[in-house]
Structure prediction request, 519 residues.
Amino acid sequence: MSTNRLPQPGEKTASNPYLYGLLVFAALSLTAICAYWSILNNTLLGDDFSEINRLFQLPVSELWRLFSVNVPAFVRPVPYFLFWFQYRFFGLEGLPSHLINVGLHTGSAFFLYWFLTRNSISRLVSFMAALLFVLTPLAPEAVTWSDGRFDTSVLFFMMLTLCLYTVTIQKNSRLAYAATLLAATAAFLSKESAIILLILIPALDLMFAEFPPGGTPIENENQTSIKKRVARSFVRVSPFFALIGFLFILRLFILGGIGGYKEVRQFGLPNLGAPAHTIMAMMAPLDQILTSRSTILLMAAFVGFFYLIAFVLVVTRWKQASGQARRIILLLIILFTSSVMPIYSSFFIDGMGSYFVNSRFFYVPNLAFITLLVVALYEFGWQTRSWRIIVTVALALLVPVYFWGLNNNNRIWEHAAAISYNITTEVPRQVPDPPQDAIFYFQNVPVSKGAHYFANGLPGTVNMIYTRQDIKTYYVDPEPEFRITPKFTVHGEPPGDGYLFSYNRETGHIILVRGPVTP
Prediction:
């Protein structure tokens, strides 16, 4: 049984939970800064410029346009506000942008700790889960890449929603309930995958409010029928359905339809190898470009062994675990399975790329995946000092490996940022004042596997270099393994009506080959 139960009214506690929370937040923040130190000063790259390009001319009086800047694809005003804010105060500096993403990532980890401890999971277990999530090598695409902010912000507000709803249940607080609705709104307006809150909130309410673990005091428990409990729960959760319904209708009105990226396939034949490959990557999240296959297999075997032990413990020691632990496990399973449903095309059809392309789609499931392991090993194992020491040592071995893997995976993003830096500094130096409606052609621009987003955002990059919208940018002979929007692509010899730049892969410099050919 967990020893970290919630204090009863009037009961004195031996320690200050707020002090513990402050220390945990400081520890997680310091860990995150150290882990992401190598990329904090990286230049913005690719679609980062494209997002800011949508917003840089937006005045304060027209912030309502944040709802429609990405029509007809999405309605995501919360992360767009963060992009607008950073450009308004810091311009195109990379450090503030990366700090925002690292801060959101750290905040999600802290809310995980907060949520677990509020539901009677011990501080040690909660901290270990939060620490491993902070260091997960799977996160670079969501955290290192500024444009991954849609994923970091949606998880931040989803975890905040779960924490606030827990406070609502435990303290019957109307203020916490109102704050929960606001947090859920921010989550849905960060990314549409927050719709899984319509599953998580009812599950949380039923398991922890209306049908809590045995021994938890319930007012008039004997006189409250199951029907009344379900009805009471329905009254509490129905405003969330109404809220998400309203936001979905608003989204349809703004977009004029369902929206979404048209080039991303939503349907296809299921491929059983795709989820298997993804689970393998989640157990050993090391980029296959920079890490040997033997190292990846060794890590997958090590982590997989502990997942196997965790599974056996949950199945065989279900009754020995505390009621809170059983409910937390069930909620984490619901979180994991529901969070891969909005990305079913990636999970069941394509899977995660070998080089973690689109791994940001698995950022939310990864939190549940890691926490499931930690909670199962501790809370379903033997509640003895020796067992906890064994589990702690085993999981602590992952800390330096995760730290190394995260820094290793970030090397590709550092390379892409270096390319971005050369182009953003050398292009305006060679063509300081292009004429109106100038045309730029780029050839030989490398497209790094993994951090492949640089080339895809080149038009927005050029627009932001000059803070002008009239300049048109095209790619010349893009690398075949990457699909670039056809309207920005020129095959063969580029026309003579624009500036031609070539990237020298040996020196890392961008060279102006020629200017527009005059008649």
Residues 1-14, 217-222 have pLDDT under 50 and may be disordered. The first strand starts at residue 439 and ends at 443. Strands lie at 439-443, 472-476, 489-490, 499-504, 509-514.
